[in-house]
Structure formats: C-alpha cells, structure tokens
Amino acid sequence: MHAIDAARKPPATIAADRTITQAAQEMDRLAVGALVVVEPHGRPAGIVTDRDLVVRAVARRADADARVDSVMTTDLVALAPDADLREAFVIFDRHALRRLPLVADDVVVGMLTMDDLVVNVTADLARLTRPITAQVLFGHQEPSTPAALG
C-alpha cells in the first residue's frame, strides 16, 4: 500500500505570513492538529501543530497576531505519496512524529497521521481474524477426505 492510500483527510496548509490565531482557527475549522506552513508559491516551509501553538506561543506569551512561521517546526520530515506505507512506520518510529506530510514536486498532497495508521492496522487485524473468530464461535467442519485417484 502506498502512503497516500492510507491518508484519511486532505492536507491542511496555511501561508507562512498568517497569524497564530488564524492557525488555531483553521485547525479548529478543519478538525486537525497540524497545518503544513507553505511559502507563497506553495512550497512547504515547516509544520505547526496544536502543541506548537501551546508550547511555543501561548506558554511564551506570544502575541496572538504573531506570524505562524515564528512558532512552526522548520525541520520538516516528509514522505513521497507513492512510498510504501512501511516506510512511514520507520519514519514515525525514528522521529517520534504523529503527523507526516506527503510531498510530491514540492507540493503537499497529503497528510498521513498516526491515527490513520491505527485505523488501517485495526481494520487489517479485524479482516485477518474474522475467519478465526468464526471458527471459535461457530466451530468448523472437518475437511472431507479426498477421493483416491485412479
């Protein structure tokens, strides 16, 4: 499975010159915990998370009209949308991230989250265990002995 196939929501972005307040309002409106901060031509410059807003802005008493790029994380870790999903697991583990922007040709095309992975893994496990669950609950017929050939 490709990383983009596991992403459940479209990517959420915000211009670097927007304010901290606008970032918080956009997160609230979209029900997301992170926005990729983009430069005027759309190239990703960083990411701002709900935690960034609390720890870097509110806790340090930043002005609500301060630019969002003043509190964003600039070392953006991203993945190609057509990368194998297992690569995302490695990145999440190595970098202790909860959200991973999917970037193609310097454009954000998706956002893969830990929540997406949990939902996908849970669904896969449910499908995998369905036959076993049926056997436990309802038993199973013994296979018939094959007929002898010729």
Strand order of the largest sheet: 1-2-3
Helical content stands at 40-55%
Encode the helix/strand succession as letters.
HEHEEHHEEH
Kindly report the name of the CATH homologous superfamily. Answer: CBS-domain
The end-to-end distance, rounded to whole angstroms, is: 46 Å
Gross geometry: elongated
Measured by DSSP, the beta-strand proportion falls in: 15-25%
CATH topology value: CBS-domain
Tell me the number of structural domains: 1
> Can you tell me the CATH class?
Alpha Beta
The gyration radius over C-alpha positions equals 22 Å
CATH architecture: Roll
Helix-strand makeup class: alpha+beta
Uncertain residue ranges: none
Mean pLDDT: 91
How many distinct beta strands? 5
